[in-house]
């Protein structure tokens, strides 16, 4: 077990692309850190730099307090699981999982013990004699996870390891993987572009965009206090409503919304954010509200998401599934002023209303 530190890491590829820009990130011993962000934002590059399979342009990486910049990958004692895992098709599950340990010269009883324990945790106990072509895609991916787990490294690196698995199994494996990691207590960095995975698995979440770290915080804090407009729009589904507004003193005005905020925030133009789940369909006359014209209603279990417009702005709201609505209806949606977020219109940074 170990901590991992990225200190002012920049990675520029010869082609000129800056994949990671001045990244500072501390992953604590035993922590499950999730790196999330859109495709191409530099997530895999961060993992590859820690694994040592890519060299950085600038900065220092430490594992357990020790600088590893010049330590070759095989001596870094990290274990990486990729999205596109490759198993040896002619070898049994047991042999696939134990391959690395055998190469490292571990004694047979140690190998047996570690493989059986990991196989049990991953629900592969009865499949150890099978070969990969006799397994489902999800089972194969679990073997790939098992192969990383048995190595008992100081840090696990997971690069979208569940993305090729169907939705239901993915939800199960998410829980399994988190439980295994907590059981072993191994420091882990998990990359995904799926914000649901990030929110459910991470002790903390690091949100990246265009090679730049936007915010690092526990899931609840990211959700409640996004640091900027990008994080606000990226985390949460459906996404937070983001409405351009003008501000004068404590009065905030949009095309179909008017709110008085507790404190003036010193800008004249801002973006007001309100989550779909913070809008309610039966507002008391005392709370601020907006009138929405409905284009589409989508029912998901007990919830119903309605999509439409208020003034010039597209709006999404979550309302009770029991309410009958149809296209063209108008509905008044209220909200608590404490649920709104304000962001600077120019910098995108959060303001505290
Ligand atoms: N070998 C390379 N040479 C040049 N540019 C590269 C190289 N590898 C990655 N990049 C660029 O660096 C940026 C970050 O790539 P990276 O693979 O880290 O993104 P990612 O966040 O993992 O994306 P995805 O979610 O699609 O896997 C991208 O713009 C990519 O095109
Ligand atoms: Mg990637």
* Helix and strand composition category: alpha+beta
* Element string (H = helix, E = strand): EEEHEEEHHHEHEHEEHHEEEEEEEEEE
Please give the share of residues in helix: 10-25%
Largest sheet composition? 6 strands, mixed
Helix segment tally: 8
Task: Using the coordinates above, name the CATH class of the largest domain.
Answer: Alpha Beta
**So, the CATH homologous superfamily of the largest domain?**
P-loop containing nucleotide triphosphate hydrolases
The end-to-end distance, rounded to whole angstroms, is 42 Å
* Rg of Cα set: 24 Å
CATH architecture of the largest domain: 3-Layer(aba) Sandwich
Total domain units: 2
- Overall geometry comes to globular
What is the residue-averaged pLDDT?
93
Approximate strand percentage = 25-35%
Q: Which spans have pLDDT < 50 for at least 5 consecutive residues? A: none
- How many beta strands in the DSSP annotation? 20
CATH topology of the largest domain: Rossmann fold
Bound molecules: adenosine-5'-triphosphate, magnesium ion
The largest sheet has its strands arranged as 6-7-8-3-9-10
Walk me through the structure.
The chain has two domains: 4-226, 3-Layer(aba) Sandwich (Rossmann fold), CATH 3.40.50.300; 238-351, Nucleic acid-binding proteins (OB fold (Dihydrolipoamide Acetyltransferase, E2P), Beta Barrel), CATH 2.40.50. Helix content is 24%, strand content 33%. It has helices at residues 43-51, 93-103, 108-121, 137-149, 167-184, 195-201, 219-224, 229-234; strands at residues 4-12, 18-27, 32-36, 58-63, 66-67, 78-81, 155-159, 187-192, 204-209, 212-217, 241-248, 251-253, 258-260, 269-274, 289-300, 303-310, 313-320, 330-334, 341-344, 350-351. The strands form four sheets. Strands 6-7-8-3-9-10 form a six-stranded mixed β-sheet, sandwiched between helices. The protein has a six-stranded antiparallel β-sheet with strand order 13-12-11-14-19-20. The chain has a four-stranded antiparallel β-sheet with strand order 2-1-4-5, with helices on one face. The radius of gyration is 24 Å and the shape is globular. The two termini are 42 Å apart. Bound molecules: adenosine-5'-triphosphate and magnesium ion. Residues 13, 15, 17, 19, 37, 39-45, 193 line the site of adenosine-5'-triphosphate.
